[in-house]
Design brief:
By secondary structure, the chain is of the alpha+beta class. Helices cover about 20% and strands about 25% of the residues.
Amino acid sequence: MANVKLGIVRLGRVAGKTKYTILDEDDISLVTTYVFEPRMNIDHNGNGVRIFAYAYSVKRGRTHAKRVQDLLWEKHRGGIAPGFSVVHKNGITMDNRLDNLQLMKKNELEKTTSTNVCDTSIYYLAIQQLPNDPIDEHFSELNVTKYYDANGELIEEGDDGATFYECHYPPCTNIEHEIREFSVCGHCQQLRYCGYVCQQKDWTIHKKYCRQRKRKLRQRSLSPER
């Protein structure tokens, strides 16, 4: 990691947390002419909803936004022929290093399994270098996972539709493929994680919100009925 030079771009908040994308150092200059943001897309390969980094020219506006992997491929490799798509080799859609991109025929794209953002991935190591987001740390009421149905539509928690959760740990990009696939925090009964490791690493920030919610739930259960 010491010899790898990367650019890290803050995309903004989606699915209840701040998202970042990593770029090669030579591509970080794109932030001077493009606005970057996260967007949720339906994965037509059967993987539910996925989050991608998008960018649009300051001059042209959001209606001309394109996925960052497409922008980088066109910059370095040329145009993308009809019937082809730029994909991420390691399955991490926030890892937009050129070495992590490849061109594939759309009809050859196979179903992919959930990507575990392990401690050895460059994306994971890069995001771990960042300080805690001030919004997450000081505004716990905003630090809540949002819920999306199979069409990528934001829905209310009580909606009876098919609900997919994203792992609440910021560096992790895993989203459920099946309903209620992820485990829920045993204290607040609200935030979901793809595994114990992510839940444990997120505890430093989550514990502030979690304890507040647990206290409110306890007070509510002890309140006399009227």
